[in-house]
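User: Hi! I have a protein structure encoded as tokens and I'd like to know what sequence might fold into it. I'm fairly new to this, so please keep things simple.
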């Protein structure tokens, strides 16, 4: 058995310059869901994704899945998509056809479709659903109300007033006998509203040829929803994210006001972690147990250990935070930030490509970039690593137990030795050996009485 996924269309109704199947819901391209589900039914070498519009982009985005791609250079309809895949599918007996724009289908339903198709010894089996609002979908014309057999599928645009009242819709998922499909696919015509080859017309073609066409109805209509418009996509996105929240809640995570949170499909969270309202957890973010993720934090592709507090307004990308650390409010951890156990990163602190050791603190108004900072270091308010000379980036090393006074500038490459002190407001350009005090600032002078004399001076010019 093979699975073919139709994903070549442009998605005209989205009014987008990006291909429909690469639009994201739940933080991933729509097509990625369909491929992941298909991969649970057959191995990736038996999956054929039919691509066309922006084919190179689609292929590049999903190459990691290991599936095959078939090029439908000109998109002349869903029937044409299957014509183009004929050679690739010829070694198989049965093919399941999925739509690249309908991501909620489950492996169980695909298996049921396949089993029903085999049990009925059918040529074509379609998965159908009863939708309260069937507008836009193809309607299923059964031989009779109770019969599993189907005479035809009629598209929205071609449906008569009577047919438009039918609530049983064609989901766009099918099982076919491969040899019989390709014996008859040449009978499709483009005599319709879009002048395309409709795969749906195979139902009538087979019916006329006295081949068996049957329908199996899914009990969960939500599974077959497609995404032709941005409104439909947002409905799917909401469904997916709510399902994700429910799954996390069932696993022991507390999420306050889940409707206000944006949690991507691949995010993992440990038990007894609390997610406050208006939090975004994106990409492959992984959060440990007993954490608190406070409001307005946006965390992407990051790994957070157990018992961590992320205070409000923290922004974090591609970073790591070890257990019991406290971050924020208003911290910005840029890619490559690696924050040690129990460390503190406070308000208006920006970090990039740094290691901050166990128990170290950078609590206020600081920029730390390209730095390796040991354990138990105190970075005073307003400290800046000057890591960029206009051409190259240079590294700052601060060894264990060092104390950096407030408002210091550390001009990299530079090293502050173990246990040393840097006096406040120093500009440090040379390495500081261990256990030393470095002062790099002008000496203060005081002119006593200067201000009083100035005030008493008569203006010379009136
Ligand atoms: C299709 C069905 C409709 C069904 C609905 C379910 C047809 C004619 N109609 O309509 O009965 O109710 O799905 O969602 O099939 N594609 C290609 N190559 C093409 C054209 C389309 O690969 O030349 C792909 C699209 O990228 C998409 C899928 O096929 O992923 C379905 O095409 P779409 O245009 O969305 O069909 P619908 O109008 O939704
Ligand atoms: Ca569609």
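Assistant: Happy to help. Inverse folding works backwards from shape to sequence: for each of the 462 positions I chose a residue that suits the local structure. Here it is:
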């Amino acid at each position: 058995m093979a699975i073919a996924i139709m994903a070549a269309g442009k998605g005209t109704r989205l009014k987008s310059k990006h291909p429909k199947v690469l639009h994201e819901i739940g933080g991933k391209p729509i097509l990625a869901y369909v491929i992941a589900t298909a991969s649970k039914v057959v191995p990736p070498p038996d999956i054929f994704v039919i691509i066309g519009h922006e084919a190179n982009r689609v292929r590049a985005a999903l190459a990691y899945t290991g599936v095959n791609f078939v090029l439908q250079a000109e998109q002349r309809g869903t029937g044409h998509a299957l014509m183009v895949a004929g050679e690739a599918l010829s070694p198989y007996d049965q093919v399941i056809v999925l739509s690249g724009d309908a991501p909620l289908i489950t492996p169980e339903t695909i298996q049921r479709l396949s089993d029903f198709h085999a049990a009925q010894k059918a040529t074509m089996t379609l998965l159908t659903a009863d939708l309260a609002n069937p507008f836009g979908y193809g309607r299923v014309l059964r031989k009779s109300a109770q019969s599993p057999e189907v005479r035809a599928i009629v598209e929205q645009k071609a449906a008569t007033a009577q047919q438009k009242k039918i609530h049983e819709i064609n989901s766009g998922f099918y099982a076919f006998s491969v040899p019989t499909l390709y014996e008859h696919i040449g009978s499709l015509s483009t005599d319709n509203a879009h002048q395309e080859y409709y795969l749906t017309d195979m139902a009538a073609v087979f019916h006329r040829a006295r081949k068996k066409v049957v329908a199996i109805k899914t009990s969960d209509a939500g599974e077959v929803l497609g995404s032709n418009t941005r409104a439909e996509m947002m409905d799917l996105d909401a469904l997916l994210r709510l399902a994700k929240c429910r799954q996390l809640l069932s696993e022991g995570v507390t999420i306050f006001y889940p409707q206000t949170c944006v949690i991507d499909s691949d995010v993992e969270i440990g038990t007894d972690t609390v997610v406050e309202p208006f939090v975004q957890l994106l990409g492959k973010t992984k959060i440990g147990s007993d954490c608190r993720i406070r409001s307005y934090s946006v965390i992407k592709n990051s790994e957070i250990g157990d018992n961590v507090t992320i205070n409000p307004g923290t922004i974090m990308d591609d970073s790591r935070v070890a257990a019991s650390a406290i971050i924020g409010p208003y911290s910005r951890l840029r890619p490559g930030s690696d924050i040690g156990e129990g460390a503190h990163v406070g308000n208006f602190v920006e970090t990039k490509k740094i290691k901050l050791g166990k128990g170290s603190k950078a609590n206020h108004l600081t920029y730390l970039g390209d730095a390796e900072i040991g354990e138990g270091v105190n970075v005073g308010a307003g400290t800046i690593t000057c890591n960029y000379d206009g051409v190259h980036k240079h590294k700052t090393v601060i060894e264990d137990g060092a104390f950096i006074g407030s408002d210091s500038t550390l001009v990299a490459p530079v090293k502050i030795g173990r246990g040393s002190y840097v006096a406040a407001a120093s500009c440090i350009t040379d390495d500081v050996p261990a256990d030393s005090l470095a002062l790099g600032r002008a000496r203060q002078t005081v002119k006593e009485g200067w201000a009083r004399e100035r005030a008493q001076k008569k203006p010379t010019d009136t």
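A useful reference point when you look it over: The chain has two domains: 2-224, 319-462. Feel free to ask if any position seems puzzling.
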